[in-house]
Amino acid sequence: LSPAAMNVSGIDVVMERPERLSRQMVVTTATRTLKARGILAAFGTVPLPIFEEDELSPSPTGIEPLIEASALPPEIAIWGESGEAVMWAEVLCLMGVRVRLVSDGRASPRENRFLRFEDADVRRLVRSQLSAIGVSIVPSSEITKSADRQIPSESYLLLGQGQPALVLPKFVHSPTRERSYTDHQGHGKTYLLSNERLQTSHPRVFACGSLISGFPMSEAIAQAEAQVAVRNALFLPTRKMRYRAIPESYHRFARVGLTPKFARKGLPLSEAERGYGNDFAAWAVWTASSPNSTDLSRTSPLPLFCKLICYEGRLQSVHLVGEGAGELIKPMAAMIGKPVGSLARWVERSPVVGGLADLVKVAVGRSQQSRWQPEHWRRDWAENWFNWRRNQ
C-alpha cells in the first residue's frame, strides 16, 4: 500500500492533510482543491488523555513508542479493556514486565468490570488466567483518586478508546445526537453515526474503521467495513454491513455472532427470562470445557472453553477460549443463523482434531442429545400433541 504502488494502480495519492471539507464535496488541502463525487473517511483515532485536570500526569500513547524503545520498562500500566489491551498485557508480563491492566475510567461504577462487553464466562476465565500469570487488574479509581498524582515510575499505554485523528465538519454528524450511539454489538459508544451502508448524515460521506467505534477493532471487521464502504462510495450505496457472521479473534479467545444481553451480563435464568419475555424458552446455551478448567490458577496447560448460544434451534453466537481459537472460529462463522444440525454435520466432516475442536464436538453433541431421540419420537409427538390440546 505504498504511495508508489497506489499511483501505479491509478490512485491519485495526495500526501497532504485536508484542511476543509464542504457540503458540496470539495476537499481543500494546502496546495490543491479536489472536487469529489464521494468521500470515504477511513482515518484512525488517537489516545485520549488519562488525567484531564492534572498537567503533571503523563499522557498515554499508543504502542509505537514501546516498539521503538531500546529496552522494555520494568513497569507498565495499560489503560483499556479491549482485546488488544489484554493481548499486550499477557505478552509483556511473560517477558518479565510488571503489568497493571487499568479498567476504563469513563465507565460508570456499575459497568466498571473487566471486559464487560464479552460473555460472562469468557470474561471470568480470561481474568483468572491473567491473574495467574501475574497481571494486576485494577480499577481506574485507584489511580485517579489517589492523593499522590505525580508522575509515576512506570510507563503508560492507552489501548482502548480514542478520539478521531481528524475533525469532520458538523454536517457529517447527526444534528440531534452526538457520540452516544452503540456499535454493531450494541455495547459501546461511537464517535460518528453511520447506517448499515456506512453512510454518515451526508449521503455521499462514508466512514469505516475505528472512526466509527472509537477503539481498535479486529482485522476481520476492519476488512469487511472497508470493502463495503469503498464499494458504496464508488458506486450506488446498495451493500449493507452484516456483522452477524464476522468472527472476532484476540489470540486465545474469539467469538462470532451477536451475543444476547443476558449472556454478556451473566444474568441468572430467572432475571434473563424477565428481560426477554415469554420467548426465553427458545434460547439454549451449550458449554464444554477442558478437565482443568475448574482450576483457574493453572497456567500450564491453560484451560479450554467453548460456548454455543442458540435460538429456536439456530446458532446465534460462538465463544471460544484457548489455543487455536482464532483459526477455529473462522470456519464456524459460516454456521451462524443455521440449525445446530448443520454445525453437527460440519463437526463430523472436519479434519481438525484435538484441543478446542474436541470441545466443539462435545458441545454440539450435548445440543443434539436434547432433541428427540429416534427411538422415542412417537412418545414425544404424543406428549406434545396432548400438551397443545390441553392449552386450547
Explain what this protein looks like in three dimensions.
- The protein has 392 residues and is an alpha/beta fold.
- It has 13 helices and 16 strands.
- The strands form five sheets. A five-stranded antiparallel beta sheet has the order 12-13-16-15-14, sandwiched between helices. Strands 8-7-6-9 form a four-stranded parallel beta sheet.
- A hairpin with a 2-residue loop joins β12 and β13.
- About 5% of the residues have low confidence.
Give the key terms.
single chain, alpha/beta, five-stranded antiparallel beta sheet, 16 strands, globular
Q: How much β-strand is present in the residues?
A: 15-25%
Structural class: alpha/beta
Mean pLDDT: 79
The span between the termini is 66 Å
In helices, the fraction of residues equals 25-40%
Counted by DSSP, the helix tally is 13
Largest sheet: 5 strands, antiparallel
Low-confidence stretches: 105-112, 178-188
Q: How many beta-strand segments? A: 16
Biggest sheet: strand arrangement = 12-13-16-15-14
